[in-house]
Amino acid sequence: MVSGQFLAMIIPVGAYLLGAVPFALLLGKLAGVDLRTTGSGNIGAGNLTQTVGIRPGVVAAILDLGKGLAPVMVARSMGLEPGLVIFSGVSAVIGHNWSIFLRGRAGRGLATSAGVVLAMAPILVLWLGGWAMAGWRIGGGRAGFIGWGLVPIFAMTRGLSPPIVLGATALTVLMMGRRIQGNPGRVPGVRAGLRRAVYDTDPVTPELTTADQPITA
Q1: If we measure between CA atoms, which residue out of 36, 18, 197, 153 comes closest to residue 93?
Q2: Phi/psi at 98 (nearest 5 deg)?
Q3: 3-48 per-position pLDDT tens digit
Q4: Cα–Cα distance, 131 to 110 (Å, whole number)
Q5: Phi, psi (5° rounding) for residue 101?
Q6: pLDDT in tens, 54-91
Q7: Residue 12's closest CA among 110, 85, 98?
Q8: What angle do CA 134, 176, 200 make, to 5 degrees?
Q9: Spatial distance between the Cα atoms of 73 and 117, rounded to a whole number of angstroms
Q10: How far apart are CA 100 and CA 17, in angstroms?
Q11: CB of 65 within 8 A of CB of 112?
Q12: Distance (Å, rounded) from C-alpha 192 to C-alpha 190?
């Protein structure tokens, strides 16, 4: 019989490795496109949609969402304590954002984080979905900054358990940290990093190449 301690170690590690699989990059390569040198340079469903098409972009988004959903569901079914269940989902997001297979930064974890949220507290999906819709009016980057930035507070106001609130906070920190980091070749500096966090875009300057234009998912 598998011990609880072994599961507590192996499931988060497996979640990280699953999260690290760059589905968008692989689908892009099947279409003859390297997302790292095309469009925004971001390895995610949004860049795949813009450079290859909506169908592969949707497939990548669903697969990325599954990377966050599956570890939480598996950990819960194995009877792990709530904190470890949430940590398994967070591990998948870490893997997606900083993939060992790519030796560094990959996507931003939007869909993978959404999968974790869906598994741990579906009510949070309504909050995030509302801000996603608001993005049509105020801009997707700004709406994402507000929606994800306030999701821990919303979780607390809904009386969700401490592990879920902590998990929501961890997801916010990971996403904002990845947004601030940007993609290779981004404009350096604190001001540019803060702009990326709020607007999810880099300052447009004559020095920027096509791959250095505004970040997309």
Answers
A1: 18
A2: -135, 80
A3: 667 777 899 999 999 999 999 999 999 999 998 888 777 888 888 9
A4: 13
A5: -75, -20
A6: 999 999 999 999 999 999 999 999 889 999 999 999 99
A7: 85
A8: 55
A9: 11
A10: 8
A11: yes
A12: 6
